[in-house]
Design brief:
The protein is α+β, with helices and mostly antiparallel strands. It has 15 helices and 31 strands. The chain folds into 5 domains: about 190 residues, P-loop containing nucleotide triphosphate hydrolases (Rossmann fold); about 80 residues, Elongation Factor Tu (Ef-tu), domain 3, CATH 2.40.30.10; about 70 residues, 2-Layer Sandwich (Alpha-Beta Plaits), CATH 3.30.70; about 110 residues, 2-Layer Sandwich (Alpha-Beta Plaits), CATH 3.30.70.240; about 110 residues, Alpha-Beta Plaits, CATH 3.30.70.
Amino acid sequence: MLTLQKIINFSMRKIRNFCIIAHIDHGKSTLADRLLQMTNSVTDREFQNQILDNMDLERERGITIKSHAIQMEYLHNNEKYLLNLIDTPGHVDFSYEVSRSIAACEGALLIVDATQGVQAQTISVLYQAIEHDLEIIPILNKIDLDAAQPDSVEDQIIELIGCKREEIIHASGKTGFGTEKILEAIINKIPAPGGNPNEALQALIFDSAFNSFRGIIAYFRIFNGTITKRELVKFVNTSREYFAEEIGILKLTNSPCDTLSAGDVGYIISGIKQASEVKVGDTITSVANPCLQAIEGFSEVKPMLFAGIYPIDADDYEELRASIEKLQLNDASLTFTPESSVALGFGFRCGFLGLLHMEIIQERLDREFNMDVITTVPNVKYLAHTTKNEIIEVHNPSGMPNPTHLDFVEEPFIKGTVITKSDYVGQVIKLCIDKRGTFLNQIYLSSDRVELHFDLPLGEIVFDFYDKLKSISKGYASFDYHQSGYVQAKLVRLDILLNGEPVDALSALTHFDNAQGLGRKMCEKLKDLIPRQQFDVAIQAAIGSKIIARETVKAVRKDVTAKCYGGDITRKRKLLEKQKAGKKRMRQVGNVEVPQSAFLAVLKLD
């Protein structure tokens, strides 16, 4: 008879943990659908396209926002294997989701579109996977399309990972061609998970979600040891102890079980209600037999972009806090701290990985929590050096020290990689130079594909750089970046004044050379959006005490002389003088409301 130890070791050899690496729109969600159908993990009744993308937003936009884990069972040579797939997003703004998935796997499927070739995002994620010693399985997807170029794209993959041509699997997510070869490669090439089921419990939390009935559900991967139902466990970083009320494996819906051991991917429900008690990257261990050290989690998230989020109704402040905390459970790359604004009241300064990430969070707050919010102009993090040799981190314009105490300001720079067709090289270089970038070098990947490298200020690329890049390259260019450090720059704070009163929510930090143009555009935009009052509204852009641009919203004129039929002109003049005095008094006490559309329009300035 097999002992329990032999059964556990035997079952560990039959587990494969893998993730999917692909650029946005290379067909990984469709290929994941085919894998689920081939392994009968989903019935025909349950099936729908992009089944792992369970958010309405993901389906509408055709992108993956969250990483999703699911277990499949596959019969190979009359033996049953357990395949744990962690599906990952492809957009640069969700790179943190990808890093967490990579930390929980032994292998990765590298999916490349046969019509588009290797893209910048694919390369950056691939390097992360190679750093974690993951086994890479190259797959050429969309091979059934007429525009497919298998030979040239195979050359790119071979140059990228140094594999043999026969190792590249040809597949089609649409038709299901090549799916069986992929499943066999997963079993034959990806190593079984390491770890010892008899050692102290060590499990890494790689994701979490909030359920209003059950509390917080934490998803984990066990590296060592075994966890059983009703066991008392401890979360190492927070030092809190809980009973494992329910543990289980991740099928299409959560599937409870009594025991999970080394190599397994599963979930734990322990009645936790406070979002702050679960940290993604934390280690779960047993109270009876604790592990000596925590698992090294993945690197801390570094927000690239900061913006204020405020409730439209001030009474919703606490509700907004609870909503953001629940959202942070589901998206660990979101950071937030409380702040207040003269114009908008109490709110939160949130850190995002990019503009799309910010847009998605705003949309999710509206859809999932029914929160109406105002978002301020986003900024990146600057370092202000004062005359007293202090260094102040500046996340929003109001935090910038007074110019009399300021020595110099440093702004974050990035190393950017653009892969494009050779026809668009000139336009791409011009775009980067217009954004105050420095062209470093170019490498020809093939006769018509070029990899360009730039140094760029982060503040210049967070707004519309990606959109413009796609426009000038007719959708062919791909972009990836990583932060390279801080560089001294001539930055100024641009204030918007309404009737002489600054609106702090519309202030922006910008380079001195761009300030005049940005100020004029903001004034012109606000002139169209601010409703007309009974008095003239002066909209001014200022740097310090110097006004650099001005527009005026003309007053709504009420015809006070309409009741005068003829008679002496002095009667009319007297009425007009009386109106003039009234408007002067109104201007002193009048309050100009800035509509939310004005805040949003400033973000979309070209």
